[in-house]
Design brief:
With about 475 residues, this protein is α+β, with helices and mostly antiparallel strands. Helices cover about 60% and strands about 15% of the residues. The protein is rod-shaped, with a radius of gyration of 45 Å.
Length: about 475
């Protein structure tokens, strides 16, 4: 997990880019932890999916900066359907000079209007700047989500790597136990055939050998599953590497609890929620800007057809019958004019009150979620710390006390059995005790390094390394 910091990530990315034969080399060479981390960063399916989230957030940021499109409108009015109506007027009058009746008919041509206008919404209140701010904060949260996924993958790789190392050692341990049980059975069989011990001891030795072989087979199956699990972290369905080059029997003293607590304040989980709070604040500012109405301005050209008219008039009176015909024509078919307009919504009822309240409530929710994340992080950190401390205590007790005594006891019983001082049951009991302790030692080492990987994930600080060579190189650089 020393690779989880910024410098380590750059190194791993350079390894991915400058070492194309890495996938081919793993089939012929033992796989180192740094290679496994590089492969996971390059090929993990979950990380590949998160990269599209970042691209989508960048696209939203581009969209947020775009201005409203202008609108083109075309209106045609007063389009007459059918022939023009005739206006008929009748009038009569009686004067001192006589009487007169007049009737006139007037016909007008179409007077349609064609208006072509362009309108544009002008955003007020800094809405575009607020949208850009919100989109930028949204991208930050997505980037932190990716960072969380990345460090989770690194932790998973370390833990899976440790479990494969442990499975390899368990296979070797169980194979050794099976071979030793077979030698014990051969020795007991020889003594039974010589009549020196009861056949019951031979039955016990055969049972112990059968149990050891079953356990050895189960360990091999568990190793195959652990190898597949490790390979799946870089997208492979089968493990193509030959083995692992690391050794996990090196442990180190854990730092004090307070230093781990201080380091956990800088982990991506909390920074992600800090970015979420900033995003919610930007959303509130955007909704407050949205309550300011936008102005729509428009300008265009209006063409009005000038109507022509024809009039017929006839009448009769004391002077006799009269008839007249008149026609009016304009010097141009259309009258051109400019049309301008401004429209502003009146914020009498809808002032975006509900959206502002919603944004404020979501901000309060995000604050509570950040607090819950901090509490959960502290609990997980404490659990990992106690698990690592308990495993470390068990490792020291087994390595420095119980295992040496059990090994010496088994060797003493084995020598005494060869001299005929003890029976095979005593040897088998000492053997079972020794190998159970060795298996507990492997379990304690596994628990320790798994917990340490959790600690490094939850604090972002390096504690121990599975590979001593990597640890030593990093220590020299400090």
């Amino acid at each position: 997990m020393r690779m989880a910091n910024g410098k380590g990530l750059v190194v791993l990315l350079l390894i991915c880019l400058l070492s194309p034969p890495l996938l081919a080399q793993q089939a012929t060479q033992p796989l180192a932890l740094s290679d496994a981390l590089a492969l996971a960063l390059k090929g993990n399916p979950d990380l590949a999916a998160y990269s599209w989230d970042i691209r989508a957030a960048e696209a939203r940021q581009i969209q947020a900066g775009l201005r409203p499109n202008p609108e083109l409108s075309i209106e045609v009015e007063n389009v007459r359907i059918g022939s023009a109506p005739h206006i008929r007027t009748s009038a009569w009058s009686i004067t001192s000079t006589g009487a007169e009746v007049v009737r006139s008919t007037e016909t007008s041509a179409s007077d349609e209007e064609i208006t072509i206008a362009l309108s544009q919404v002008i955003e007020l209140g800094g809405k575009r700047a607020r949208r850009l701010e919100l989109a930028a904060r949204d991208r930050d949260t997505v980037a932190w989500d990716y960072e969380i996924a990345r460090v989770n993958v690194l932790r998973d790789v370390v833990q899976a790597y440790v479990k494969v190392l442990a499975a390899q050692d368990r296979v070797a341990l169980d194979d050794e136990l099976a071979q030793l049980s077979e030698r014990v059975l051969d020795a007991v069989t020889a003594r039974v055939e010589a009549g020196r011990v009861s056949p019951l001891e031979q039955n016990k030795a055969q049972t112990a050998l059968a149990s050891a072989r079953v356990q050895a087979e189960r360990s091999k199956n568990a190793l195959a599953a652990a190898r597949t699990r490790l390979a799946s972290l870089w997208g492979d369905t089968e493990a193509s590497f030959q083995g692992l080059s690391g050794s996990f029997d090196t442990v180190c003293t854990l730092p004090d609890w307070q230093s781990l607590t201080n380091a956990s304040e800088q982990v991506p989980d909390l920074k992600r929620w800090q970015a979420e709070l900033e995003k919610r604040g930007a959303a509130i500012r955007l909704e407050k800007a949205n309550r300011i109405p936008d102005v729509t301005v428009s300008a265009g050209l209006r063409k009005t057809r000038v109507a022509d008219s024809d009039a017929d008039e006839f009448g009769f009176g004391s002077d006799g019958f009269s008839y007249s015909k008149s026609r009016s024509r304009a010097d141009d078919d259309y009258d051109n004019s400019v049309v301008v307009g401004v429209s502003v919504p009146l914020p009498l009822f809808n002032r975006n009150q509900g959206a502002i309240k919603e944004a404020e409530h979501l901000a309060a929710k995000a604050a509570e979620q950040r607090r819950a994340a901090a509490v959960g992080l502290n609990a997980s950190l404490r659990q990992a710390y106690e698990d690592a401390a308990g495993a470390y205590t068990a490792i020291l007790a087994l390595r420095d006390g119980m295992l040496p005594v059990a090994t010496q006891t088994f060797e003493s019983f084995n020598e005494a059995y060869a001299q005929g001082k003890f029976g095979s049951l005593d040897v088998l009991d000492a053997q079972r005790t020794l190998f159970e302790l060795r298996r507990e030692y492997l379990n304690a080492l596994t628990d320790y390094h798994v917990a340490v990987a959790d600690l490094e994930r939850l604090t972002g600080a390096a504690i121990c390394s599975v590979e001593p060579t990597i640890s030593n190189e990093n220590d020299k650089g400090k």
